[in-house]
Amino acid sequence: NAGVTQTPKFQVLKTGQSMTLQCAQDMNHEYMSWYRQDPGMGLRLIHYSVGAGITDQGEVPNGYNVSRSTTEDFPLRLLSAAPSQTSVYFCASNSPEGNTEAFFGQGTRLTVV
Amino acid sequence: DAKTTQPNSMESNEEEPVHLPCNHSTISGTDYIHWYRQLPSQGPEYVIHGLTSNVNNRMASLAIAEDRKSSTLILHRATLRDAAVYYCILRNNTNAGKSTFGDGTTLTVKP
């Protein structure tokens, strides 16, 4: 079982460039979410999805877009990268019930110069 | 959504028990108490969860106060590999897709 797979693992962007962070899960989970983690800080929710075609904003959505066309994939798009978006990004998936565990990917370390 | 409060950091000696506290005074009756940990340079991983009763698994134990306003994650014998950031979060059937994490507790284990 691969679980939650994020690509790429590392990325360097120039200010103003755009890119897509990929996230795929093979557990048929309805829920998927994106977090960012700045150095020495906890995780902050960017966007989440409760099913294919349904997305919503989290705590820090500005500068990011998401879409969910399939159950398996939940890409995160940076429209115009800024140095403030330098962070480690984590994708998670889980079932809808509150008594089920969430599974996280290994993260994408993004640096914007 | 109810929030949790954890100490920023704790220290423990190797092979001693560790009790990591979490306060959640505004917890609702349908909230499950979850604990996750994040090892250095890795994504968070599930540790344990519970609703009302104390829970044990191979990784840890979870002690839940009778009024459910606080809980304690217990590592029975800390090892150096347990050094991590530990997060306490609340999840229910309506917010399971948008869990919010605080800064967690950074556990340092001394040899």
Radius of gyration of chain A: 13 Å
Q: How many strand elements of chain A?
A: 11
Unreliable residue runs of chain A:
none
Outline of chain A, from the CA principal axes? globular
Number of helices of chain A: 0
What percent of residues of chain A are in strands? Answer: over 45%
- Name the chain pair whose interface involves the most residues: A-B, 33 and 28 residues
Order of helices and strands of chain B: EEEEEEEEE
- Mean pLDDT of chain B, rounded to whole units? 94
Shape of chain B: globular
Order of helices and strands of chain A: EEEEEEEEEEE
Key descriptive features of the protein:
heterodimer; A: 113 residues; mainly beta; 7-stranded mixed β-sheet; 4-stranded antiparallel β-sheet; 50% strand; B: 111 residues; 5-stranded mixed β-sheet; globular
Q: Could you describe the 3D structure shown?
A:
The complex is a heterodimer of chains A (113) and B (111). Chain A has 113 residues and is mainly β. Chain A has no helices and eleven strands. Chain A has strands at residues 4-7, 10-13, 19-25, 31-37, 43-51, 54-57, 64-66, 76-78, 87-94, 103-104, 108-112. Chain B is mainly beta and 111 residues long. The chains are: A mainly beta (113), B mainly beta (111). Chain A binds chain B through residues 4, 30-33, 35, 41-45, 48-50, 56, 58-59, 90, 92, 94-107, and chain B through 30-32, 34, 36, 41-46, 49, 51, 85, 87, 91-93, 95-104.
Task: Please outline what is shown here.
With 113 residues, chain A is mainly beta. Chain A has strands at 4-7, 10-13, 19-25, 31-37, 43-51, 54-57, 64-66, 76-78, 87-94, 103-104, 108-112.
